[in-house]
Fold this sequence. Notes:
Arginase, Chain A; 9 helices; zinc; binds zinc ion; globular; two-stranded antiparallel sheet
Amino acid sequence: xxxxxxxxxxxxxxxxxxxxxxxxxxxxxxxxxxxxxxxxxxxxxxxxxxxxxxxxxxxxxxxxxxxxxxxxxxxxxxxxxxxxxxxxxxxxxxxxxxxxxxxxxxxxxxxxxxxxxxxxxxxxxxxxxxxxxxxxxxxxxxxxxxxxxxxxxxxxxxxxxxxxxxxxxxxxxxxxxxxxxxxxxxxxxxxxxxxxxxxxxxxxxxxxxxxxxxxxxxxxxxxxxxxxxxxxxxxxxxxxxxxxxxxxxxxxxxxxxxxxxxxxxxxxxxxxxxxxxxxxxxxxxxxxxxxxxxxxxxxxxxxxxxxxxxxxxxxxxxxxxxxxxxxxxxxxxxxxxxxx
Length: 340
Ligand SMILES: [Zn+2]
């Protein structure tokens, strides 16, 4: 299996975000990639640095205004008198009315869903290189690979067409899906991160050619709160092409694997030409975000379950935060996937 990782993504080093009214250390740190790389190499896989594409492939799912904001925000922010070290929004428009703002504080509010995706000096570069990893994995699949894994950092599945959020800036899974869609009539995205893949759902909400399926902790009590509910099925031409499978908080292997089997069956029934797996590892019981309670063996079983699907597959790394088990979780998943 080909693995893609760009060392430049370490340039994104967020410091803090606001949680329950407190400024706390940001969990989406470069050490994550080091731990995930250890797992990849332990499986005998050798990551390669992907080709650089710039913003081109991102335009398939993101707006030019948003991509412009990402590339310009840090410089404009640092020029403000008294600016803090990271772009963190403090005003938010009511979407649906109002005018696109010119000032960077206004643009930050417009393009950032929450305070959990701070933009620092290396963020734009890192996000583009993470997207390059996703594009390379999709291209490997288009070239005939059965499986390819993009070790993306920062992750992507909370990013909408024009909005960052939840540690995510560019939606790597959606970018990979769009890339696969250039060759295949139908593509599916299967998201197993503990958080609902709200950005991916939003991007493809009105499209019938891309199925989005997400298994996650119940948003009634967990981020992203505003969506991820079972009744959200898509709209217009996309009605029926979104499936949310929320689980009660604290659910373990049995409920999670049953939901994954249901989701995988929906993916196969859609008859896509290729699949993107948004591979979050934060459903594990040891994850600091503590939404579900899946075991390491549960992730091995998930790898087997997903690996049994005969469709070609590009995997993008989503969440999974710092814990003593992070390497072991990925090792178990990849072992299951590759042995299926
Ligand atoms: Zn997550």
